[in-house]
Design a protein that fits this description.
Shape: elongated
CATH class of the largest domain: Mainly Alpha
Distance between the termini: 32 Å
Structural class: alpha+beta
Oligomer: single chain
Number of strands: 5
Largest sheet: 5 strands, antiparallel
Number of helices: 16
Helix content: 40-55%
CATH superfamily of the largest domain: Hypothetical protein af1432
Length: 331
């Protein structure tokens, strides 16, 4: 073992691997370099390179190091281990060594992957897996609503339906927490997170060539896109999802205050708070995402576009959106 640091810098350079975290890795080939702290010399050195095979004796030794609190990995490798921990989100509620940005990244990866699985196979089992992770996120935010500032920093620009769903959820969640002053019920958070994630579910029924079409959409194409809301309702019905918040997000995210939206051409007071909120979050996420037919726009510019469209979008929510984006944190 070659020593490479002293114990004073451990928490800045390394993340301690608890037995729970170790259990989330493949047993024979850990995905990251493993480091062990040697108390006799007061230094930490590499024990195993990521991807190298561990013998059964080595597995026992590594498990012992973890039990003794002497096993570590480099924090700079967190994107690698985030993929593994995203499959066991419950660890984020009990492990204390993660930096907020690391937790945010793990949540994003987990929910993006769960959404992708569900969109590919919208069945009861994939929905329950998604709902389980949603409940963990709701618990995490309910404990400390200020954590949402780190979550919004993970927004991705590369567009696909799963990424768009998670981006919309993070922005909508931040808006709701600001609107409510952080006073929230866990059950409402679960419903809202699900509603924001599922708002565009019916888009899986729209042919991809129409979704990504670069030319002007003809009437037939527009009608196909507008039918995604009814398609989404039908899919929720088959899954026996009747939560009113989820339905409001799905049914009203394309309604506009001046009645120019769809599918019901609702006006102002006929649009629920959750519908207005989802409309702002969905539109913002669409503007900042890269699409085949146009490049992503700057986030600050996207905020100004929505603020300037006060006839269609709730001015209270677009003002809060500006505050959310101004106060995003980087670490």
């Amino acid at each position: 073992m070659v020593p490479d640091t002293d114990p004073g810098s451990l928490s800045e350079t390394y993340l301690q691997i608890s037995p729970n975290i170790l259990a989330s890795f493949p047993k024979f080939r850990p995905p990251v370099d493993l480091y062990v702290f040697d108390p006799e010399v007061g230094r930490t050195g590499r024990y195993l390179r990521g991807g190298e095979r561990l013998s059964r004796e080595g597995q026992d030794e590594v498990a012992r190091f973890a039990e003794e609190g002497r096993l570590f990995l480099l924090r700079e490798d967190y994107r690698v281990y985030a993929e593994h921990l995203s499959r066991k989100l419950g660890l984020l509620l009990v492990e204390e060594g993660f930096l907020p940005r690391e937790v945010a990244e793990i949540f994003f990866i987990a929910l993006r992957n769960r959404m992708a699985d569900f969109l590919n196979q919208p069945r009861e089992d994939t929905f329950e897996a998604l709902r389980t992770d949603v409940a963990i996120l709701a618990e995490y935010v309910w404990i400390d609503p200020s954590r949402v500032a780190f979550l919004t920093h993970t927004l991705e620009r590369d567009y696909d339906l799963a990424v768009h769903s998670v981006n919309t959820m993070l922005i909508g969640l931040a808006l709701y927490l600001r609107l409510s002053g952080g006073k929230v019920e866990k059950t409402v958070l679960i419903s809202l997170i699900l509603g924001l994630l599922l708002h565009d579910l019916g888009m899986v029924m729209v042919p991809k060539f129409i979704r990504d079409k670069e030319q002007f959409l003809v009437r037939r194409d527009r009608e196909s896109i507008e039918r995604h809301i009814e398609a989404g309702r039908n899919m929720l019905r088959r899954l026996k999802v009747q939560d009113p918040v989820v339905l409001e997000c799905m049914e009203q995210h394309h309604e506009r205050l001046d009645g120019s939206g769809y599918p019901a051409r609702r006006f102002d007071k006929n649009i629920s708070t959750m519908g207005r909120l989802c409309a702002v979050a969905d539109s913002f996420s669409a503007i900042v995402g890269d699409r085949p037919y146009r490049s992503a726009r700057d986030m600050a510019e996207a905020v100004q576009v929505l603020i300037g469209d006060g006839k269609r979008y709730d001015p209270v929510l677009t003002t809060l959106l500006a505050e959310v984006m101004d106060e995003r944190v980087t670490d």
